[in-house]
Amino acid sequence: MSKVEEIYGSLVFNRITMQEYLPRGTYKELMTTIDDGEPINESLANVVAHAMKEWAIENGATHYTHWFQPLSGITSEKHDSFIDPVDDSHVIMRFSGKALIQGEPDASSFPSGGLRATFEARGYTAWDPTSYAFIKDEVLCIPTAFCSYNGEALDKKTPLLRSNKALKEQVQRALALFGEDVKHVMPTLGAEQEYFLISEEDYKKRLDLVLCGRTLFGYSPCKGQELEEHYFGAIRPTVSAFMKELNEELWKLGVPAMTKHNEVAPCQHELAPMFTNVNRAVDQNLITMELMRLIASRHGLVCLEEEKPFDHINGSGKHNNWSISADGKNLLDPGDDPIENLRFMVVLTCIVRAVDEYQDLLRMTTASAGNDHRLGGDEAPPSIISMFLGDELGRVVNAIIAGDDYHSNSNTKLDLGVDVLPNFDQDNTDRNRTSPFAFTGNKFEFRMPGSNQNLSDTNMVLNVAMADSLSKFADDLEGKTGDEFTAACKEWIRQTLTEHQRIIFNGDGYSEEWEEEAKRRGLSNLPNTAKALPAYVSDKAYALFDKFKVLNKEEVDCRYNVKLEKYCKIMNIECRTMKRMVRRDYLPAIEAYAAELAEEIASIEKVLGEGKAAGQRKRFEQIATGAEKIHELCDLLHVKHHEARDLEDAQEKADMYADIVIPIMKDLRAQVDELEIITDRKYWPCPTYNEILFYA
Ligand code: ADP
Ligand code: MG
C-alpha cells in the first residue's frame, strides 16, 4: 500500500488543495462563503471553477458531474465532459463558474411525490461548497443540492442544510444566555456502517438476493452466531484484501475510515469513520456505500447493504453518533467546571425533550421495508424509542427530578451550577447495547437507523427537534442574568426532565416486559413502515418544520408520498420475486424429488412387499403435504398481492401490505424452509444459508 499520509485526501478539492490552487483573495472569499453561508457570486465561481478544473485534469479527470441525493436517497450523477471543440481536430478543456454553481438535470426522472407535475420537469442542482468536490472514476464530483424552480427541495441534502442553520441559530441564542458568543455551530455525525460480504457465485444463484438484496427464503443455518467466533475474529484473506482496498480508496477521497472489524453474524462486518460535520458525514457515508459495492465486485464478493439479508442471524444497522460542536467545543462534553456542567445539563435536557416530544418523527426517519425486518429482532432495538443515559448520569437526572441532593461515588453532595459533575466517561464500560438512543460519554448514539439508509432525514429531524427545545429554553430564560439565571436554569432543567422522564429507560430494551412498560408510559410503538410514516404528515410535524423553515407543507407531503410509494414498490417486487421462486424453482424441485420418492417406494414394495418402505413413505407424505400447503399459500399470496397492488390510496396499500400480505409471505417462507431441510440436496435449486454464510 502507498503511504497513507501521501494518498490521504489526494482526490479531494479540500482546503489545502484550494490554498494551493486559488489566488489568496479568492481562497479567503470562498472560506467566508463556506463558514458563514454567504452566497457565491459569479466572478468568484469562475475563478474557483477554473482552479478546480485544472486540479481535476491533473488528477486524471475528463468529466464533471453535479452529485446529488434525490428523494430516493441514493446518489445521482450525470457526467459532462470538460471538452469544448475549437475546430475539427482540437478541443480545449473548459469549466465555467456557471456550470459549477448550477446544473439542470432532467428532474422528471426523479421521484417528487407529486410536488412537481411532470410537465414542469425543470429542476436545478446548486453547488454545496460546504462539502468538498472529489474525483471518482475520472469524474469530478461536485456535491449539490437539488431543487425545483420554485425553490422547493427535491432532495435529501437541502432540508439537512436548512436544519443545520436552524440549529445554529437556536444554539447561539441558548449559549448567549451563558455569556458565550459562538460563531460556528455544526452538528457532528459518525456513521458506523454494517454490511455483509458473500461470494458472488452464491449471490448469482439466488433471485431474491439479486432482485431484493435480501433472502426471502432459507432455513436457519446449523451453526449461527452462537459460538461468537466471528465477532472481532481473524478476518478471512479475501475480506481483508477487500477492506485494504476499500480503506485506500476511501482515504484518497478524504473519508476518515478508522475502524474495520468483523461483526457478530457470520459474513458481517463494520466500518466506522471518524466523525465530522453532519453534511459531509452523510456525503461520505454515501461514497463509502458506493465504494463497498464496487470494490467487493473486484474480489469475487458481493456487498449486501440491506438491513436484514438473512433471517435467524443479526441484521445490519447504521449507528448514528450525533453531537453538536460550537466553535470547536463539543456541547455534549460535560466539561469540568460548574458553569460548563450547567450548560451540558441544559443541552442534555433539551435532547431528552426533543427525543420524547418528537419520538414518532424520529422513528419515522428509520422506517423502510428492509429495516422493518430488523427492528425488534433479537439484536436490534425495538421500534419503541427510549433513551439510556448511563448509570451515573441516570442517577444525577433522577436526583434532579426528585429534588434530592445527588451524591456522587465519592459521596460529595452535588449542587448543579455550583459543583462539578462526576466523569461520565467511566460509565462507558457497561453501557446498554439494547437502547435505541444511548448517551455514550460525549455523544448520543441512535441505533435504530438501518444499514441501507441515507442518514439525512434522521439528522434533519434530530437537528430541528433540538432547535425546538433550545428555542423553548431561550424563550423561557431570556432576560434573566447572574444568580437569577442560574436558579431559573436549574428549575427549567428539573421541570423539563420531569415532564419528559418517561423516555428515559435504562433496562433491557429487547425484553417483552419493556413493550408493556413502554405502553403504560404512553410511548409509541410503531412496528412497521406503514404505521410509522403518517407521523411525517401530522400537524405536529408540519408545525415543527414550518417554524424552523426546514420544510413547508408541500415538501413534507411529497416526502411522505415518496416514502410510501417506495415501500409499496419494494413490497410489490418482493411478492413477485417470491412467487416466481416458488413456482419456477422450489415447487418443481420439491415435486421432482416427490416423484423420485414415489418411484422408490413403488420399487421397494414391489420387491419386499407392502409397508416395507415406511421411512420413505413418511417422508413422501411430509413432502406431499408441504407441497400442497405451498401451492395454497402461493395462490393466496397471489390474490392478496394483487388486491394490495390495485388499491388506489397509497396509505391503504401500504397498510394492506404490512397487515395482510407480509404475514402470508412469512407463512409461505416457513413452509418452503420446512421442506428445504428434508429435500434431497441435489434437487435444491439454490445455495442455502449453510453454504452462503460459511464459505471457505
Ligand atoms: P462503538 O459504538 O463501536 O463503541 P465509538 O464509541 O468508538 O464506537 O464511536 C463510534 C462513532 O462515534 C465513531 O464514528 C466516532 O467517530 C463517532 N463519534 C465520536 N465522537 C463523536 C462526536 N462528538 N460527534 C459525533 N460522532 C462522534
Ligand atoms: Mg456503535
UniProtKB/TrEMBL annotation:
<dbReference type="GO" id="GO:0006542">
    <property type="term" value="P:glutamine biosynthetic process"/>
</dbReference>
<dbReference type="InterPro" id="IPR014746">
    <property type="entry name" value="Gln_synth/guanido_kin_cat_dom"/>
</dbReference>
<dbReference type="Pfam" id="PF12437">
    <property type="entry name" value="GSIII_N"/>
</dbReference>
<feature type="domain" description="GS beta-grasp">
    <location>
        <begin position="62"/>
        <end position="151"/>
    </location>
</feature>
<comment type="similarity">
    <text>Belongs to the glutamine synthetase family.</text>
</comment>
<feature type="domain" description="GS catalytic">
    <location>
        <begin position="167"/>
        <end position="586"/>
    </location>
</feature>
<dbReference type="GO" id="GO:0004356">
    <property type="term" value="F:glutamine synthetase activity"/>
</dbReference>
<dbReference type="InterPro" id="IPR027303">
    <property type="entry name" value="Gln_synth_gly_rich_site"/>
</dbReference>
<dbReference type="InterPro" id="IPR008146">
    <property type="entry name" value="Gln_synth_cat_dom"/>
</dbReference>
<dbReference type="InterPro" id="IPR052725">
    <property type="entry name" value="GS_Type-3"/>
</dbReference>
<dbReference type="InterPro" id="IPR022147">
    <property type="entry name" value="GSIII_N"/>
</dbReference>
<dbReference type="Pfam" id="PF00120">
    <property type="entry name" value="Gln-synt_C"/>
</dbReference>
<dbReference type="InterPro" id="IPR008147">
    <property type="entry name" value="Gln_synt_N"/>
</dbReference>
<dbReference type="Pfam" id="PF18318">
    <property type="entry name" value="Gln-synt_C-ter"/>
</dbReference>
<dbReference type="InterPro" id="IPR040577">
    <property type="entry name" value="Gln-synt_C"/>
</dbReference>
<protein>
    <submittedName>
        <fullName>Glutamine synthetase III</fullName>
    </submittedName>
</protein>
